[in-house]
Structure formats: structure tokens, C-alpha cells
Amino acid sequence: MFDRLRHPLVAVAMALLLTIPFVATFVTHGLHLSPEPPGANITPGMAVLVGGLAILGASFLLAWGAETAEKDVPTAFAIAVLAVLAVAPEYAVDAYYAWQAGLGGSGSHAGLAVANMTGANRILIGLGWAGIAVFTVYRAKYVGDEAVDHRSGFLADVVTLDHGIATEIAFLLAATAFAFLVPLGGTIGILDTVVLVGLYVLYIAIIVRGDVEETDEHVGVPAYFQEFPKKRRIAVVLLLFAYSGLLIFEAVHPFATGLERLGVQYGIPEFFMVQWLAPLASESPELVVVAYLVNKARSTAGFNALISSKLNQWTLLIGTLAVVFSISAGHIGGLPLDEKQTVEIWITAAQSFFALGILANFEMSVREAIALFVLFISQVLAEFYVIQTMSEQAANQVSITILYAYTALYVVLGVALFVRHRESLRELLGRTATNAREAVGGSAQPERAD
After folding, report:
1. Contact status, residue 242 vs residue 31, Cβ threshold 8 Å
2. Which of 38-42, 74-78, 117-121, 137-141 is the least confident region?
3. Are 447 and 230 in contact (CB under 8 A)?
4. Alpha carbon distance 47, 304 (integer Å)
5. Angle (nearest 5°) at CA 264 between 188 and 25
6. Which of 109, 110, 149, 330 is least surrounded, with the fewest CB atoms within 10 Å of its CB?
7. Which of 2-11, 137-146, 198-207 ranks highest by mean pLDDT?
8. CB atoms within 10 A of CB 185
9. Which segments of 289-339 are extended strands (E)?
């Protein structure tokens, strides 16, 4: 009996059961992405509970699909697909605000689109990268993990990354550098779309030509599915991706809306909620997936997923805003930016620059992870304090000053780290150039036998 309970399909069934309350409660109510309450008789607390369970179950299905796919496609590509699906809810929420701005809705919609986008990106690094690094080191104390290097000194243990992740880091660095220029035109426009989406397309073109690697031996659900004949295996992967992607896409909005409505009860301003509470919900699937990978001592794959998520959010998410706005407005245009939104983009780019400075030598120590978290959370709490204690006009000006100060601090720290890691940076850029040349001039890889 106990052997049957350990069967991989039992784990799949349990993950599916977590999604059933959402399907029964919300889909039967005809739920779709809208600013309306998530259901006629559904409280915010119930929306958070049922939506959260669905996101959790779908995240496991998504992770199993990505791991199973590694037998047939390059690991980096499988993880890139996983990252896109995991952050799809973020695209949906941001697209809604950009669409409303294009229709000529209230002037706040453009600001909310930028708030949601910048909040999601900063949460991914300030909580995601930092938290997963600390969790990886903590987990390594109990389960062997070759990616963790225990060193002497205060919080000196590090998570080491595979140098094969150089391409992702280099493209994220390029996108980050361009992001500093985006606000200079006063809008997020079509030129930004061309550059940022072009960067992501080039990145995918490079990694999809990579080898299908012999990854670490899988166990559990992925190992079970990988034993299927190729056609059945591919069908299972596509089904897992489709079902989990759809569930995450649908469940995250009521989950976020429930959080927002709970926040309203405690007097939290709309802009603050859209920037921090809604993205916290939409980022949860990828954080669950990465924590799952780290728990299996697949730290490199976990960090690859985090970096890939940041890359597609920092390219596709920003780049598609102008497209959605233009379609909605009926003419080619750009999402307008005021001073607050401009500095929000700059601080987000600066945080990314600092984080990449940390990863330039393919390592992140516990103290570096804590520094990422402390800088992130202190800025959020400082702004929250200002919002709660000052008038709206005064709070806006003080908030802008805080953002400028943290932007400068991030940039100074980032420059110092890149100077310190300049030899590793040369290696990183060299590896990326080599991968690009091989992708352009290389021949198709032979199909791997089952």
C-alpha cells in the first residue's frame, strides 16, 4: 500500500487536487481578468485561499513539465519556456492597465502599468534572488549540493553558478543598460519594443541551438514521465505546460485582487498595492518552482529560472506595453511617463545592475543576498512610512527623493562590483560571444536517442 502511495502519479494527483477548488469555485463563476470582484459571493479571503492553492498546485505541474522536457530540448530553453509561463499573469495584469491607458481612461492607468511592472521586477530580485540564495545555502546544510561552497567568515557561504549561465546574464545586462535610456523619451514607445523584444528573440535564437545536455539524473515525477516513448512524453509535457499555464494565468488575478481588497480594509493606497501586493501574487508561481528545484539540489537550474524570468520580464514585459497601448489607442504611440514613473524605471534598472554586479563572478554569498534584501525592503518600508504619514502631494515628492537616493546607491555599488569582478566579466562576455557564434554558424545537433 505504501509503495502505491509513493508512485509518481500520486504526487501528480495531489497537485491536481490543489487546483480543483479554484476550478469549481471560480471557473464556474465565469471568472476572467477584470477589475471587478472575483465572484458574486466570494470573500477576498476565500479568493486568496483558493487562488493560492491553485497557483501552488499548478507550479508543481509546471516544474515537472520543464524537467521532463529536458530530455528532448536544451535545458536553458526548457527553463526559458517555464519562466515565460510562470510570469504570464504579470503580463496579463500589466496589459490590462496599458490597454485602459490606451483607451483614454484615467491618467492613473499608465502609472499603474509602470508601478506593476517595476514592482514585479524589484520583487523578483529583492525577494526572489535573495531569498532563494539564502534558502539554497540553508538547504545545503542538510542535503548535499555541489553548487554551495562553504567558506570561512561572516555569512561567507556562497551559491556558485554554472558558467554556462553566462548568456542569460549578458543579455540581462544589455537589457538593463538599455532600460536606463527608456524614460528619456518621455514614453515607453515602439522603439523600446523593437530593442527589448529583439534582445529576447536573439537570446532564444542562441539557446535553442544548444545541445540537449545530459542533466543530473531525475527522480520522482520527471523520471517517470521521461521513461515514456517520445511522442507520449512530448504530449505529457505540452499538457502539463498548457494546464498549469492556464491555471496560473487565471488564478493569479483573483489571488491578487483578494490581497488588494484585504489591503484596502487596512488603508493601503491603490498605487502601493498595485506595485507590491499584486506582483507578489503573480511572482509566487516562479518562486515556488525555483524553491522546488533548489529542494532537489538543482540550484543552478533554479537560478537559471530566476534569471530567465527577470530577462523576459525586463524585455518582453516592458516591450509589449507600447504594443498593447498602441492597439488600444488605435494609433502608434507610447505609454506616457511622468517624473515618478521615470525614477521608478531607473531604480528598477539600478537594482538589476547591482544584482548583476554580484553575479558577474558567477557567485552569490549569503551576505550579498542579505544586502539585496535589505536594500529592497528598506526602500519599500521607507516609502510606505512616507505615504502613511504625509499628505499626498508631500509624500509624492519625498518618495521621488527616496527613489533617486536608492538609484544612486545601487549604481555606485554596482560599478564597484563590476570593477572588482572585471576578469570574470570578460569571461562572461567571451562565453556569450562564443555561444552566439556557434548558434549562427553551428549545424543542427543530432537527435538524442531514447
Report:
1. no
2. 38-42
3. no
4. 31
5. 90
6. 330
7. 198-207
8. 12
9. 335-336
* Out of 249-258, 351-360, 414-423, least confident range: 249-258
From residue 263, alpha-carbon distances to 41, 258, 426 in Å are 19, 9, 46
| Within-domain flag for 446 | no
Mean pLDDT of 406-419: 97
Instruction: Give me the half-sphere count of Cα atoms (radius 13 Å) on the Cβ side of residue 206.
Output: 21
Extract the C-alpha cell encoding 7.
508512485
CA distance 380 to 209: 41
Domain membership of residue 306 (yes or no) is yes
* More confidently predicted of 121 and 278: 121
Is 375 domain-assigned?
yes
Q: Are 89 and 252 contacting, i.e. CB atoms less than 8 angstroms apart?
A: yes
Residue with cell 497537485: 15
CATH of the domain at 379: 1.20.1420.30
35 vs 383 pLDDT, higher one:
383
Task: Name the grid cell of 97.
Answer: 492597465
Give the mean pLDDT of 35-41.
Answer: 46
With CA atoms as reference, report the closest residue to 259 among 17, 39, 52.
Answer: 52
Q: How would you classify residue 268: left for phi > 0, otherwise alpha for psi between -120 and 50, otherwise beta?
A: beta
Residue type, 105: G
Which domain does 126 fall in, by range? 2-440
Coil, strand or helix at 387: helix
How large is the average pLDDT for residues 19-33?
69
DSSP characters for 92-123? HHHHHHHHHHHTT--THHHHHHHHHHHHHHHH
Look up residue 157 and give its three cell numbers. Answer: 557561504
CA angle 83, 354, 347 (to 5 degrees): 85
Q: What is the pLDDT of residue 32?
A: 40
For the four alpha carbons of 163, 164, 165 and 167, in that order, the dihedral sign comes to positive
Left, alpha or beta for 323 (phi > 0: left; psi -120 to 50: alpha)?
alpha
Query: Is residue 206 a part of any domain in this protein?
Result: yes
Cβ burial of 394 (10 Å; 0-12, 13-18, 19+) is exposed
Nearest to 119 by CA among 317, 391, 413, 329: 317
